[in-house]
Design goal:
It holds the Pfam family Ala_racemase_C. Pathway: Amino-acid biosynthesis; D-alanine biosynthesis; D-alanine from L-alanine: step 1/1. It comes from Nocardioides euryhalodurans. Helix content is 31%, strand content 24%. By secondary structure, it is an alpha/beta fold. The chain starts with 5 loop residues before the first strand and ends in a 5-residue tail after the last strand. The structure holds pyridoxal-5'-phosphate (PLP). The site of pyridoxal-5'-phosphate has 13 residues, from helix 9 and strand 9.
């Protein structure tokens, strides 16, 4: 096998560390969210690390993701939450995966699948408390709860959870947070009045889990913070979370360019004086955001080097100044920050996005490698 020219290095001990820190900080049961291939870290290794660190639950968007966890041998509680019409609920029920219903139409699909699965479903109900995305709107909630209670009485399922999701938890002072939490408490009362006694009531994602104790209920659903990234930059206290992913490549070429030389497509940067540039052999085809052109930095030879000109499909150019750096030198796009390298948060700011998008989209021709010092 050829040597990897570009690697995504995932440090599993850091995921375990982060999950433990979050469990201690929140004091409730933990659902580690491993959707979208574990936010780019690899769903199965991330899930194993989370379980090792005591995550009682794993959260995924799709039933396929949940079944992937089962195929990899995971036997713990798993919740999937984003069905589409015609979803294979029978496969999820057979695999002991908790499924989520947003509507009476979805309840009917789950009920039809129960027969095929030959066992009752574990069903969670999602209420829309103000995100206006998935979940039952408040004016449909009583009907959904009534149908769900009837299905439970028939033996079609057990309602194992009632939950919702915040819109603005990364802005702790935003008034939507109070409004959503109040709406959630009301929705829980409606469920109780209908006789539902779910195992878990949950509302908080990473930002709320850390910043809003009143929203923790029985369980928190932590995605981004499990990977060591800050869910609410500027608001989060320092808990010692450590970014688990690094993206590194080797310089393909190093050369001198004269004063005035235009760099990369469109010549959006010109060298003010003669300088040395390095070619980093990754680009937007590998998930490096083109929006970070002329803004991001890369660590080479112990120093942060500015990206000059546009990020291309397969490569980008960094300014090495007059330093003596050779082709083949290690270029760290982002990592833990421990060695002075930028973080995914830095890249997010350079590209006008959030760290979630940086780590989830990085991929392409990067080869993922896991570092695991064994159980600590
Ligand atoms: C992705 C997701 C989460 C995790 O959010 P983070 O901000 O990454 O902690 C939690 N709940 C739901 C419903 C999600 O879609």
């Amino acid at each position: 096998m050829s040597r990897a020219r570009a690697e995504i290095v995932v440090e599993l001990p850091l995921i375990r560390h982060n999950v433990r820190v979050l469990r201690e900080h929140t004091g409730v049961e933990m659902m580690t969210v491993v959707k979208a291939d574990g936010y780019g870290h690899g769903m199965v290794p991330a899930a194993r690390a989370a379980r090792d660190a005591g995550a009682a639950w794993l959260g995924v968007a799709t039933i396929d993701e949940a079944l992937g966890l089962r195929e990899a041998g995971d036997t713990g509680r798993v919740l999937s939450w984003l069905g589409v019409p015609g979803e294979d609920y029978a496969a999820a029920i057979s695999a002991d995966v908790d499924v989520t219903a947003y509507s009476v139409a979805e309840l009917r699909e789950v009920a039809a699948a129960v027969g095929a699965a030959g066992r009752p479903a574990r069903l969670q109900l999602k209420v829309d408390t103000g995100l206006s995305r998935g979940g039952a709107p408040l004016d449909a909630w009583e009907d959904l709860v009534a149908e769900a209670a009837a299905g439970q009485a028939r033996g079609d399922w057990t309602v194992t959870g009632i939950w919702s999701h915040f819109a603005c938890s990364d802005e702790p002072e935003h008034p939507a947070n109070d409004a959503q939490e109040a709406a959630f408490r009301h929705a829980l009362e409606v469920g109780e009045r209908a006789g539902l006694r779910p195992e878990v009531r949950h509302l908080a994602n990473s930002a709320a889990a850390i910043l809003r104790p009143s929203s923790r209920f029985d369980l928190v659903r932590c995605g981004i913070a499990s990977y060591g990234l800050d869910p609410a930059p500027g608001h989060t206290p320092d808990l010692g979370l450590l970014p688990a992913m690094s993206a590194v490549a080797e310089l393909a070429m190093v050369k001198r360019i004269p004063a005035g030389a235009g760099v990369s497509y469109g010549h959006t940067w010109h060298a003010p004086h003669a300088t040395t540039v390095g070619v980093v052999p990754v680009g937007y085809g590998d998930g490096v955001p083109r929006h970070a052109s002329n803004h991001a930095e890369v660590l080479v030879g112990g120093r942060r080097r500015p990206v000059r000109g546009r990020v291309c499909m397969d490569q980008l150019v960094v300014d090495l100044d007059d330093d003596d750096v050779a082709a083949g030198a290690r270029a760290t796009l982002f990592g833990t920050g421990r060695l002075g390298e930028p973080t995914a948060q830095d890249w997010a700011e350079a590209a006008g996005t959030i760290s979630y998008e940086i780590v989830t989209r990085i991929g392409g021709r990067f080869v993922r490698r896991y570092v695991d010092e064994g159980q600590e």
